[in-house]
Amino acid sequence: MNVKIPEMMDRPEVLLRGNFACAGCGLSIAYKTSISALNRPIVVIPACCSSVIQSLHPNVAYNVPTLNIAFAAHASAASGIARAKKMRGEDTTTVVWSGDGGTYDIGLSTWSGAAERNENIIHFCYDNNFYSNTGAQRSGATPRGAVTTTTPRGKREKRKSIARIMAAHDIPYIATASIGYLRDLYTKVKKASMIEGYRFILIDAPCPTGWNSDPAITPELGELSVKTGYFPLFEIEEGKLTFSKRGIRYKDPINRLSIEKYLEKQGRFKSMTSEQTKLLTDDLQYEWDMLSKLE
Ligand SMILES: Cc1ncc(C[n+]2csc(CCOP(=O)(O)OP(=O)(O)O)c2C)c(N)n1
Ligand code: SF4
Q: Which of 81, 115, 125, 133 sits most deeply, having the most CB atoms within 10 A of its CB?
């Protein structure tokens, strides 16, 4: 289960109580852990649940400077902030905090430009596999077979590999992490913060509201995604991939829990046929094989 991170206890809360997140929201766990690990963060947030959970003016649940902005501008706005802070000699960390819709799909052009310029930004993508705040539409991150409001019979296409797309930009650091393994997430964020240039961290962040799962098992789902091989944990540094200690044993399918153990806890997979489950399993293996080529 989740580990407590002693270092986080000494830091001010970055997400205050009374915020608008649903019970068991994976993104808020990801946010607290990640942003707490950073020195003087400035957070740029495109439209997503993260711009909603901060609550309404004049109240605000984020305890760090935050800029809400359009999808097509998140990484370009962050580029400007990072450059201005450097010119002023201010030691801050500029962050894009985006959902999978804002990263895999709608905000792709802005981050691709910023990554190509190797802007000094950490780009976090909390991946809940769909557009949650607008009512659970499918995204490029939705896995095959998952029911969303725009895929009522289950998505027919496989999930996009955003890590490999990001890797094609040859940025200095890429990592994946899960809210089921908070120490691993925290350590990767700390490491990213020591590196200059465009850094990308993809976080598996269950959404009980849209996944139709029990809010009490959100961390367990984070663990199961790793143990079933659904969400590989790795880092890519200067083009070379290393599977993380917490997840490397699941590279071998023999060590993985059966994918059904993950699917059966989520209403979005309730109508999966055995054929869809087989296709999903093949998709997962394909991704492991493609990632392994980067080792
Ligand atoms: C250009 C543009 N298209 C669509 C929208 C409507 N919209 C707002 S948030 C959102 C979904 C965001 O999904 P994601 O990035 O996955 O974040 P989540 O809602 O899951 O937190 C959409 C489609 C918008 N604001 N701007
Ligand atoms: S809809 Fe999902 S991602 Fe959005 S606040 Fe609720 S649990 Fe979190």
A: 125
Question: Residues with Cβ < 8 Å from 134, sequence gap 6 or more?
Answer: none
pLDDT digits (tens, 9 = 90+) for 20-70: 999 999 999 999 999 999 999 999 999 999 999 998 888 899 999 999 999
* 91 belongs to a structural domain: yes
Residue at 1 is within a domain: no
Structurally, how many domains does the chain consist of?
A: 1
Residue 194 lies in a domain: yes
Pocket of ligand 2 (CB under 6 A): 21-22, 25, 27, 49, 53, 128, 132-133, 207-210
Could you report the per-residue pLDDT of 199-252, keeping only the tens digit for each?
A: 999 999 999 999 999 999 999 999 999 999 999 999 999 899 999 999 999 999
Average pLDDT, the chain: 96
HSE-up of residue 263 (Cα within 13 Å, Cβ side): 22
* Domain limits for position 140: 6-292
Is 243 part of a structural domain of the chain?
Answer: yes
Separation between Cα atoms, residue 109 and residue 34, nearest integer Å:
24
Instruction: Identify the CATH number of the domain in which residue 196 sits.
Output: 3.40.50.970
104 CB under 6 A from ligand 1? Answer: no
